[in-house]
Amino acid sequence: MGAPYHEIGPIRPPNEGSDRSLLLRLTRNCPWNRCAFCATYKGKRFSLRSIDEIKRDIDAVKTLAEALKAESWRMGFGGAIRPGVVKAVVENDPRSYDPERIGVEAYAQRLQSLINVADWVSSGAKTVFLQDANSPQMPLEDLVSVLTYLKNAFPQIERITSYARSKTIFRKPVDDLVRLREAGLSRIHMGVESGCDEVLSQIQKGVTGDEHIAAGKKAREAGLEVCAYVMPGLGGKRLSERHALETARVLNEMEPHFIRLRTLVPRLGTPLWEKLRSGEFEALSEDEAVEEIALLIQNLKCRSYLASDQVCNLLWAVEGKLPDDKPVMLKVINDYLRRPPLERLRIQMRRRLAAYRMMIGEPEGDLGSMVAIAEGALDHGYPDVGEKVARALDAIKQFFI
Fold first, then answer.
1. Element (H, E) at 320
2. Which end of the chain has less Cβ packing within 10 Å, N or C?
3. Residue 323 CB coordination number (10 Å)
């Protein structure tokens, strides 16, 4: 059998990473899986995991947490998960963590599970994120059963969150959402992306702006926190203004607790990428995306917390409580836009490279050459510097999730 482990999906919201949440997979992939901008689940089939599978994963998490704490005590750390504890657990059970014996894929799964549990325990084991794309798609009684089992296994949990399609929430009775909240669900992360119906139709989101509003209001009525994700740049050049203004309208009526920006990066292999290549879609430049964000913020009247905590955003400092911090956020944007063009290009290059190096390391090969060419153009102020920087940045951002 070997050491237990729990299954982990491919993505989670940025704040669930910074909070070191436990990642618990209830469903696999996305039931909609048609959004033109998304490559995460393309070619993968949606499935519901069984209650028994999920409960076994919860039991595995409990076993791993106890093993980590026991090893911590043995090492003299008093139960705290310090550096070296995970390594000791692995070394104490070589048969379970031997890639040559169990295979590289199984080894990676077990190690990923152990590290996730270690991070979670070290953070206080208080937050959980339910994966994958739309956990509320599960039958109500099944999801209530899982939430109850999870809370009973770990009574100290304070927050349980999940991605949710707004269409799914729109279709659910408020009473069902109340039951989920009473069972332990705290917050839903909704991919609003846009409030403009034309944009939503073009990206095949499968929902309208008014349905976004109704879903957000319904979730709030049930006592759930709502985190709305919006995607600056999703309307391209043609629909940029409408995208910003109509998204602001939808957010004002939804009044989510949180608004999170994730600036569009057209992904290789997606339908949107093909539209970009054919000329049907014209992407915004870095500066145009920042200008669109300013227009969005100028028109927000809701009392929400806005964050730019996603690697695709250029200006992470655009963050604050609406409406009080709106002047501060707009000042960050205006200070950037008032800089000379060459300085703005340097900022773009510096920040995108810093993010790449933090995640992957130094650019190499063709990407390294593109970066070197762009940096040389910046140093010498060549006439085509903007084109060279844009080409390098487009390549760098393909690595951003």
1. strand 320-321
2. N
3. 13
Question: Strand pairing partners for 188?
Answer: 162, 226
Mean pLDDT, the chain, whole residue set: 96
Q: Which residue has the tokens 């790449």?
A: 356
Confidence of residue 109 (pLDDT cuts 50, 70, 90): very high
Topology at the third CATH level for domain 165-338: TIM Barrel (3.20.20)
Q: What is the DSSP string of 31-44?
A: SS---TT--TTTT-
Distance CA 351, CA 362 (A): 14
pLDDT digits (tens, 9 = 90+) for 238-290: 999 999 999 999 999 999 999 999 999 999 999 999 999 999 999 999 999 99
**How far is Cα 272 from Cα 340, in angstroms, rounded to an integer?**
32
H-helix or E-strand spanning residue 198? helix 197-202
- The encoded tokens of residue 53 equal 């599978």
Going from the C-alpha of 331 to that of each of 239, 300, 318, 327, the distances in angstroms are 25, 15, 9, 6
CB 286 within 8 A of CB 348: yes
**Beta strands, E only, 62-195:** 127-131, 159-164, 187-193
How far apart, in whole angstroms, are the C-alpha atoms of residue 355 and residue 350? 9
Q: Reduced to 3 states, what is the DSSP secondary structure of residue 272?
A: helix
